[in-house]
Fold:
Amino acid sequence: MRIRATVAAVSGALALSALAVPAAQAEDAPKAGGLSAFSAQAPADDAYGDTQITNVVVNGGKDIVLGTTAAKTINVSVTVTDNSGVDNADVALWHGSSFEDPDGFLLSDQFMNDEKATCTASSATTSTCKLTIPVDPQVDLYKNSLAGTWKVAAIGWGKDGDFIEKDAYKTHRVQRASTLTVNAAPEPVVKGKPITVTGKLARANWETSTYAGYTAQPVKLQFRKAGTTTYTTVKTVNTDSTGNLKTTVTAASDGYWRWSFAGTSTTPAVSAAGDYVDVR
Structure:
């Protein structure tokens, strides 16, 4: 798989240098070369000098949600401080038991193109560096078990060659996109008669590039009376072995019926658009 090649490329890049530094620091810091990488000369959570990473924001703090085909570009910012000013930063997301042996790795565009991040100084010692991470579910997310918590590796450099590397500065969730449908029938219906509400909860299957039913999940049936803006939960129904939902309620007044799923660590919350039923 291409992801294997990507990880192999990363492992090879670890042996390359990050940025040029003074000769006196050569044995302690990444060596000259110009490729922004997490260098082999800098073991996990290594540092030289006074450089510090004070914040990393991935995707605006929101979970990264991927479907089956559409690629996304994830924005990341890394705030770095150094007494001589900030030169550069880089970031990567990884999944697995260790940084040295990941089963998933997402690299920045800047790393792939051998470019520096766009760093904006807020003071003489602090800058926020912006990067982008491209994610293609058909390339990077080759198995469903990659959904869930990923670790965020970050590295920052000062203008004097100082650096800091954090292999797991924080965590961030990558999720399988979800869909939810609803149909309430019959329409119209006589007041006091039963309404059957059906639907299906599905989520992206990264291994087959299709959407498949999400089984054994609690989903709320909600109702919004015509002329109001708030949905009220009527009951909770579990999805069956294919992700389908079905229940019966009594028609009382005109309004909208929908299913609403709270989400899990691997799958985002989703609500169906309300289906209007005219009660006569």
